[in-house]
Amino acid sequence: MVDGEVHRTVVIVGAGVAGLAVGTMLRRNGIDCIILERRRREHVEARQRAGTLDARGVRLFREWGLAEVLDAVPAPEIRGGFYMPPMSAKGIHLALFAAETFARAMIAQVRDDDPRLLDAYSDTCLRHVWNYQAFATWITDLMHDTGDPSYRGEFRKQQARAELRRQFESEASNRVFSEFTAGIA
Ligand SMILES: Cc1cc2nc3c(=O)[nH]c(=O)nc-3n(C[C@H](O)[C@H](O)[C@H](O)COP(=O)(O)OP(=O)(O)OC[C@H]3O[C@@H](n4cnc5c(N)ncnc54)[C@H](O)[C@@H]3O)c2cc1C
Fold it and tell me: Are the C-beta atoms of 118 and 105 separated by less than 8 Å?
């Protein structure tokens, strides 16, 4: 190493949710990395990022030995505490999905010299992002359409109400809806 130069296996740009998560996952698995952040540490530590996590996020932190993170984040509750809309927590969900996918790929590359997960990284993440984008757009439009008929008319309002009812009355529809809400689809 030459003076002033730092060598790391992985360089992560951005100490946001994804960057900090992937950095922690890699370091706990013995892969050295450095995180470059353009904002000051005090700013990053003080700004708000997540109020809620979906079930997949909770599982992820537990599986990677990071359960202490959960002490700072309220888990979604249906009864009692607060109601979490079905399209909520998907920002963190997507950031953590990408972080975990990349960490697993990097571990396979470094430990087993296996590049297959890294090669598939973009396709894997984009497929997931569009799947959740489609769900978020669908449920947001649906909920708007069930309300004020001046929005998209009485005909669409009644259709939307039927569609929303089906999410709770049909076991098959409810299962898909619940999987997206929990983030395990
Ligand atoms: C107020 C607020 C509340 C939220 N609440 C929730 C919630 O309850 N649940 C939920 O799921 N989502 C929530 N979100 C959304 C969630 O925070 C984002 O989806 C998530 O932070 C995205 O993670 P990220 O790592 O991709 O990006 P970020 O967290 O934005 O991190 C990106 C980082 O990269 C840095 N950076 C950018 N460019 C460079 C560069 N060129 N060089 C160096 N560093 C760079 C930035 O400064 C930043 O620190 C909330 C967002 C906000 C703003």
Answer: yes
